[in-house]
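Cross-check.
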Amino acid sequence: MYEPIRTKSVHTVAGSPTDFPHRSREEELDIQLASHLAALLAVTDELRTQAPSADLDAAAERLADQVTRLRGGLPPVRASITAALHQPPVGALHQRAHALAGRALVVAASRADTAAAILAAERMDAHAAADEPAGLATH
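Predicted model, tokenized:
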């Protein structure tokens, strides 16, 4: 009455699903978090060239440490920023850094990485405070 199908369906994708490497959700989140923190590090380095401060230096080192940890010991590539013809205003860099820190915070929270979440939240606060006009500080 019933004969089992002996050939593969024409709708079956060629090869088996194990033909390519798969990453776990945690690995994907690690990659995303490392990318966001590396982008934040690049903006922090750019800020350091325009408005040097000990806070930015310390933040850059902490960001580099976190990226290295998330990439399994591979340190981030850091470009030396030289004077360019057009440098974005410091306020715009703080806004960009604040947005990147926010993205990193979301990913760090979703993967329950406390150290990265604390660092991202601290950087969000620092960049928000640095971007406020001096007379409008509400804290």
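Helices lie at 25-50, 54-70, 90-110, 114-131. Residues 134-139 have pLDDT under 50 and may be disordered. Passed to J.P. for a second look.
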